[in-house]
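Give me the fold.
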Amino acid sequence: MVTTSDTRAAAPLRTCIGCRQQRPQSNLVRCVVGPHGATVSRTAAGRGAWLCSSTCFHTAGRRKAFDRAWKQSVHPDALQPLEHALRIAFDDLIINMEELPTVGVANDEPAATKG
């Protein structure tokens, strides 16, 4: 039997509760419900619900996906403060993703443009 010892860990995959697509954890935002309400945090204790966009936030709210992810009933009004925090988190996520180098383009060369 031949085994390989590849010690590199793959990026953890999580499922967006809105669109149900699996993505790398670094591309998603984690929402947590705690004793003081819902919040956006990667490290807070509690059950997490992962989202990839604000559109998925609205879809998840409409489909009651937060209820299933957090295993408790969530009133729609309780999600309103979470919407503002998510908007800030998604803006930061997009900015951080734009700062990443494009695959296959050397850092000293300008990126190719259309037209």
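The mean pLDDT is 80.
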